[in-house]
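User: Need the bound-state model for 2,5-dideoxy-2,5-imino-D-mannitol:
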Amino acid sequence: RAEADPLRPRFHFVSPAGWLNDPNGVSQWNGTYHLFYQYNPEGAFHHRIQWGHATSTDLVTWSDQPVALSPDGPDSADADGCWSGVLVDDGGTPTIVYSGRKGERELPCVAVGSPDLLTWTKSTANPVIAAPPADVDVTAYRDHCVWREGDRWRQLVGSGIRGRGGTAFLYESEDLRSWGYVGPLFIGDASQGDPDDPDWTGTMWECVDLFRSDGGVPGKATAGWGSGEPGDEDSHVLVFSAWDDGVTHHPLYWTGRYANDAFEPRALHRLDYGGRYFYAPQSFRDDSGRRIMFGWLQEGRDEAASVEAGWSGVMSLPRIVSRDSEGALSFAPVPEVADLRRDHISVAPAVIGAGTSVHGVISEVSGLQLDLELELDLDPGAVVRLGMLESRNADGTAVEQTVIELSRDDDEDGGDVGRGGVSRAQGALRLDRTLSSLDANVDTDPRGGPIPMPGGRVSLRVIVDRSAVEIFANGKPLTARAYPQLGGGGVSLNAVAGSARVRRFDAWTMGEIFGTGRALFP
Ligand code: DQQ
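Assistant: Bound-state model below.
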């Protein structure tokens, strides 16, 4: 049934059955990429979560593997779910650190893998940490970031301190089993802003992920933090998913400096302007030194609709994370994604002015699975709209369309990209989903945020995979979902204010990564 849904992505990873949420244990092991994920094969809802598992040699096509972890009996530490965690290399032994859920509580657990990472044995010592730090009133306590620092392991557990804000507790260990509490790495301030703000830091930090801003692991025994330059205030990045009792969920990151068991924040940034549509990201460094991140694309339709459709949740394409000239992060899909490109169309350069539509010019570009690369020069004050997933009436009026809007400020100074941020934005990226679906029950709230736009130049990458849309404008991502009912794959481009030069417009249709007859329970 799920496979028959025309809105189910065809080249993003989706679970073979039921429900998928967070990426877990993302890694490369003996050359093979491993993607584990929060999985409920029984139905399209979050319940008694297992660790699904898929492998890839190219980051594009995935082979399903047997479920890696599933809840044990009623007395076990993970009786009610194997929640998010990471995979580390313990002297050659693949080792997972995850959150075992029992009742309403999650605690750190460990499992070791066979050399092929297909069979997992849980530690009899689970949970390996018996309780959150004493004398702290935590809002929640789960999810893990684990790395080797000198001759020790270090671990962060995501949490929040009631009445103060989100945090991550730092621990250390010699053997991944016995952990000593070091202290809070850094405590957010939930009194700053409110839950509706897209950069509110929340009352709990889910899925914390600390790495060096040059892509490396957080710590080294010797000198050489971050970029290696002494005094680099943005030498580290602390990614977290800001959460508040199911109301707020969005991914954020601090740049700052990790040293002396603490994180000194410098600037807060939104990680993806789609908010919850790119949630609970986790990253790793691959064999070629790239920092690669996956995130979970939540649904924009309700649980009943997902259950009816038979599936829920999409894994993002893997993205390369790099540091931009302002010390913030820049994102791009891994270049391997181009392997999925099929038919290519190149639209001739053009100037578009207010009111003129080049819809006709690009009528040859159409599809539900597309990869678009544009380079645009916007004049000051220009507003350009790129429509996709369009169906139009005979008179040309759009009945359904999902619209990316790029605007360039009149005033070159722009505003700050993040609270305390230093980046100058010169424009904005928005996603207008007002007409995205005739289904009145799906989320169509606008999304957006500022983007750097030096001289009005925008490099725009748009990946459409049925209901999944990933947008990158000058390295700033906006990920979202759209649920068109009419099956249209039209694309249009026009300026609604000012004018712009379309320097480049390349489009490809995209292939599929799963054949028919994918086994539901590998
Ligand atoms: N999802 C997991 C938790 C995590 C949350 C449970 C984030 O471990 O905090 O499926 O989406």
